[in-house]
Amino acid sequence: MYFTRLPDPTDPGFDPQAHYRRFKQENIIFNASSSFSYCHEHVGCLSLKVLFKGEETYTVDHQRLTLRPGQFLVLNNDQTYSSHIQKGDQTKILSVFFQKDFAASVFEDSLLTEETLMDNAGVSMRPVPEFFSKLNHMDDGLGKRLSAMVARYDTIGYDHGRSTEDLVFLLRYLVGKYRDEARLSDNVQALKTSTKTELYRRLCIAKDLIHASFMQPLDLIQISLEARMSVPQLVRQFRSVFGCTPHQYLITIRLRQAAHWLQTESWPVGEITWRCGFVDASAFCRAFKSRYGLSPEVYRGLH
User: Fold this and answer.
1) Cα atoms found within 13 Å of the Cα of residue 297, Cβ hemisphere only
2) FRET partner for 128 with CA separation of 20 to 30 A, picked from 68, 86, 180, 286?
3) Cα–Cα distance, 267 to 98 (Å, whole number)
4) DSSP code at position 139
5) What b/e readout covers 179-196, taking b as 16+ CB neighbours within 10 angstroms?
6) How far apart are CA 261 and CA 282, in angstroms?
């Protein structure tokens, strides 16, 4: 099913039980604009969350995540979460909810070998990957695929058969991200697999905290406390897994956000400087040119 409006929980006719029951029965896509929305804490299904404009805040297993354009979030089956869009903030969202059996069949096809599938024809193997609840950077391939998908729905209408094909490829993409995460977690400096997985989960918390507060000075002490790691352990493991220090990652996030605003907003470069957390415009311009090969003004002109 395809919806271009978010449900209104304040509507006297809104039935939350019937609403959430629908997600167990079929795949559902929300492609909507909203200036205010909230979703009470509930147990959800496997879903993909994307924002094309604005901000949306999620609380997932008591962890606060701020989703912005250029990112996506994957939530697992039976995961508890809530979300809200601040009143007055114009947002453009895409939420894709995968019906459990449909997702399991795609995972089976993606994760098992052709020989295993042939030898067990008619037998449900149903491997179910457990995704890390973290913000992910959206690469150009996924961004273009999602933009083309919603543009097609908006112009020629929703088609169930074509949508099913779209969702198969989306889930296969998520399987690829799952494998990438497994390879990254293997870079954690620890011996036991369970320790690697837990430390990687804590590093993801630290990474998301940097995302959420990129406009503020880096507070490694607070981040390490919330990630339940010491500062030296955080810096060492962060660099081992992600290939950069927390501060270097912060600069990357700031510059990426600056590039997005240069393309989408008419704010002066000075305003973008302080919105991104830089205290000096000249330092910002040098850092931006070093990363993108162009000054902010020239970059804006070309985009």
Assistant:
1) 4
2) 68
3) 38
4) P
5) eebeebbeebeeeeeeeb
6) 18
Question: 70: helix, coil or strand?
Answer: coil
Q: What is the pLDDT of residues 231-252, one digit of tens each?
A: 999 999 999 999 999 999 999 9
Which residues, given as ranges, of the chain have pLDDT below 50?
none
**Contact at 8 Å (CB) between 53 and 69?**
yes
What type of residue is 126? R
Burial profile 125-137: b = 16 or more Cβ within 10 angstroms, e = fewer: eeeebebbbbbbe
The two beta strands, 28-34 and 2-3, are parallel
Q: What integer pLDDT is reported at residue 127 of this predicted model?
A: 66
Record the pTM: 0.83
d(CA 93, CA 57): 12
Q: Report the pLDDT value the prediction gives residue 122, as an integer from 0 to 100.
A: 59
C-alpha neighbours within 13 Å on the C-beta side of residue 137: 13
Alpha helices in the chain (DSSP H): 16-22, 100-111, 114-119, 140-156, 160-185, 193-212, 220-227, 231-242, 246-264, 269-275, 281-292, 296-302
Cβ atoms within 10 Å of 3's Cβ, excluding its own? 13
